Amino acid sequence: MNNYIWSDEAFNHAKECYPQECCGLILDIEGTHTYWKCKNISGLYKEKSFVIDPIDYANGEDQGEVLGIVHSHPDGEMGFSYTDRLSCKYLDIPFYLVEPDSQSIIVLYPSEVND
């Protein structure tokens, strides 16, 4: 069991998006950590990558402070890609990877990336 209040929403979003990667934000809205669904605009590569729709990101920022970025890897691949690691470091924000079938979440913090 995990301690993320937003996890059920993220797991459901990952199921809805399968076989594509889902993506979203963790927002602090008036002290509550909330999952904010975003559209994956990664073009032809949505099964292997994600790009958050900038409108969705901006709308999320309008609602609260962005605390993290969430995405899924379809079919249970629970490891951050090289691109995930670079993006985490560049954006200086934690990345969360969700896997709905096992109800698993892993997190990567920018300080952990030495690539």
Plain-language structure description:
It is a single chain. This protein is 27% helix and 28% strand. By secondary structure, it is α+β, with helices and mostly antiparallel strands. The relative contact order is 0.20. The protein is globular and about 35 Å long. It has a five-stranded mixed sheet with strand order 2-1-3-4-5. The longest helix has 11 residues. It has a single domain, classed as Cytidine Deaminase, domain 2 (3-Layer(aba) Sandwich), CATH 3.40.140.10.
What is the fold-level CATH name, i.e. the topology?
A: Cytidine Deaminase, domain 2
User: What's the CATH class label?
Assistant: Alpha Beta
Cα radius of gyration in angstroms: 13 Å
Number of domains: 1
CATH architecture: 3-Layer(aba) Sandwich
- Total count of helical runs of at least 4 residues: 3
Q: Which structural class fits the helix and strand makeup?
A: alpha+beta
Biggest β-sheet description: 5 strands, mixed
β-sheet strand percentage: 25-35%
Distance between the termini: 30 Å
What is the number of beta strands?
A: 5
